[in-house]
Design goal:
With about 270 residues, the protein is an alpha+beta fold. It is about 30% helix and about 35% strand. It folds into two domains: about 1-130 and about 235-270, Nucleotidyltransferase, domain 5, CATH 3.30.420; about 140-225, no CATH class. It contains eight helices and twelve strands. Strands 1, 2, 3, 4, 5, 6, 7, 8, 9, 10, 11 and 12 form a twelve-stranded mixed sheet that branches. The radius of gyration is 21 Å and the shape is globular. It starts with a helix and ends with a helix. The model has no long low-confidence stretch (mean pLDDT about 90).
Length: about 270
């Protein structure tokens, strides 16, 4: 129902997004209830957690709900021999029949920029990942010099990248404004064992000096740096979807103790 609505009334320019969200829940009898991180409170609170799969409409600048699944507690994950990242990837892959027909890109925050999650999504679907690297990520410059003719494997890499002080001569300056500069390069990601597209954004203070930086990346080497950064930033539309569901359609007001009833309520609230 949700994907049909999106294809009918959306702009056609989409990117997938996934995130986990805390919901308050009273009592101790509900499966999966426990302490989960609440971004609004800035601490772990008693309740449940749900994985949220959405579609972000790039042109209409809004978020559409697709699916939600409650996060199982640690004992259930142990019984199923899965971890949190396994569960999160399953929530995305449950929508596999619809994934490629809507978008080939999945935008997730830095928590999901881990090999286990990314490999499962890439190996079992056609999606490319868009995310943010940790500031201590192990990256290497690609070697583009003359090829050796001697014995042994040809040189592939040309030194480690210090994200705090990269050699910007090896990057392409894509855009520049009074507030930021955007650089682009193809680099080797050691933990993913593959080449990624790195979009390196330098933020400037009012005097034009470097104030901070953010290393965005994508496994899609053909995606432009401008689109890469924009697709990641537009993920924030999910917050408005969650806010509206809490304020107007009772997202956090269901106190049922059945997982099926809770997931039905959460899906219907966000779809509405």
């Amino acid at each position: 129902m949700n994907t049909t609505y999106i294809k009918t009334h959306g702009s056609g320019h989409f990117v997938w997004a996934f995130d986990a969200s805390y919901l308050p829940k009273s009592g101790h009898k509900t499966p999966g209830v426990g302490k989960y991180w609440s971004g609004c409170a800035g601490k772990a609170l008693w309740g449940i957690e749900v994985g949220l799969l959405l579609v972000i409409d790039i042109d209409f600048h809004t978020a559409f709900h697709v699916d939600v699944a409650q996060t199982p507690d640690s004992q259930e994950r142990k019984d199923k021999n899965i971890d949190l990242l396994d569960h999160y990837s399953q929530v995305v892959l449950w929508a596999k029949p619809h994934l490629a027909s809507i978008s080939r890109h999945l935008a997730v925050d830095a928590y999901f920029a881990k090999k286990d999650f990314i490999d499962q999504i890439r190996n079992r679907s056609e999606l490319h990942i868009i995310s943010l690297l940790r500031q201590d990520a192990n990256l290497r410059y690609l070697y583009n010099g003359p090829k050796s003719t001697g014995k042994g494997a040809p040189k592939r890499f040309d030194g480690k990248i210090d994200l705090k002080n990269p050699d910007l001569n090896r990057f392409t300056l894509v855009s520049e404004s009074a507030h930021e500069r955007l650089y682009s390069a193809l680099v080797n990601c050691v933990f993913l064992k593959t080449t990624i597209h790195l979009a390196y954004v330098v933020y400037l203070d009012k005097d034009g000096r470097v104030a901070s930086y953010r290393p965005y990346f994508s496994t899609d080497l053909a995606l432009s740096a401008t689109e890469l950064v924009h697709y990641y930033r537009v993920r924030f539309q999910r917050e408005f979807l969650i806010r509206d569901a809490k304020q107007f359609t009772g997202l956090s007001q269901c106190q049922a103790r059945s997982i099926n009833e809770l997931e039905f309520h959460t899906n219907l609230s966000r779809s509405a």
